[in-house]
Amino acid sequence: MPDTKEVANKNPKSTVTDLEIDGFKFTVDTDLIDDVEAFEWINAIESENKITAVVPLLHFLIGKDGYEKMKAHYIEQDGRFRATKLMEVYQLIIKHFNPKG
After folding, report:
1. Taking Cα atoms as reference points, which of 56, 62, 85 lies closest to residue 73?
2. Which pLDDT belongs to residue 30?
3. What is the SS3 assignment for 5?
4. Residue 56 pLDDT > 70, yes or no?
5. Are 62 and 74 in contact (CB under 8 A)?
6. Disulfide check for 62: which of 41, 48, 66, 70 has CB 3.0–4.6 Å away?
């Protein structure tokens, strides 16, 4: 089971969340999950089992630079960035999405 942590937000209404999974810390604005663009990728992941859609979704949610840093971290840690790790990151982000705001 991955080592995950959530750092408390200073602003309780903020949708920006600091997350950590297996030693990599990143920030995501979970409100972006409510955008139609994100919805298309999430639908591809959830309904069509296209896990490759996680990559563009992460580019959208944490930025390409954030994604590249994440990728480099896991390559350094494990020798490669595994699809299972990618899905763990996706599931952690989705877990923190609150559509009620």
Report:
1. 85
2. 87
3. strand
4. yes
5. no
6. 66
